[in-house]
Design a protein that fits this description.
This protein has a single domain (about 15-150), classed as Arc Repressor Mutant, subunit A (Orthogonal Bundle). Helix content is about 60%, strand content about 10%. The chain has helices spanning about 15-35, 40-55, 60-65, 70-80, 105-125, 130-150, 160-165; strands at about 85-90, 95-100. The protein has a two-stranded antiparallel ribbon with strand order 1-2.
Length: about 160
């Protein structure tokens, strides 16, 4: 009896999960190449963009939005604060906490980040008509909404569940 390959019958080029992940990876790599003139990393661009939409958020909240570990963000925020992109201000409700704000240096760069994103998207969509590109975005938004609304409830560790009984 012949042993079947685990991937036999699977076309990874047609697999939604593999394809969407690979497109995101390649898009990010292209953004990095296009954006190197900014002197910011992609992670820093994401941080500035999310912070622009959520000014005054605390570090834990921003880490949650960015889906990265808070300790990873702290080091990044430290570097960005030293470079003059972000400032920490005291939280009026909690003297131990800090709120994050963009600096005047950061505000003009947001337009440049958007320009790089637009340039990268135009390169990625180069083989698509305007209608196809719009349709792709619409379809991805529908998939995104569907997955976001069906986010499973947080799974509690066994010890926490046992402690409730």
């Amino acid at each position: 009896m012949a042993v079947q390959s685990v991937t036999e019958g699977m076309d990874l080029d047609r697999s939604f999960g593999f394809l969407v992940h690979d497109v995101a990876r390649l898009f990010g790599r292209r953004f990095d190449r296009n954006g190197c003139r900014l002197g910011l990393t992609r992670a820093q661009c994401r941080t500035l963009s999310y912070l622009a939409r959520n000014e005054g958020i605390n570090q834990a909240g921003l880490a949650d939005l960015l889906e990265i570990r808070p300790m990873t963000l702290v080091r990044q925020i430290d570097r960005m604060e030293e470079s003059g992109w972000i400032e920490r201000r005291p939280d009026p409700a909690d003297r131990r906490a800090r709120r994050l704000f963009l600096t005047n240096k950061a505000r003009p760069i947001l337009g440049e980040i958007w320009d790089i994103a637009t340039e990268t998207r135009e390169e990625a969509f180069g083989d698509l008509s305007a209608t196809q590109a719009e349709c792709l975005i619409d379809l991805l938004q529908r998939v995104h909404r569907r997955l976001a609304e069906r986010e499973p409830a947080e799974v509690l560790p066994v010890a926490a569940v046992a402690g409730r009984q």
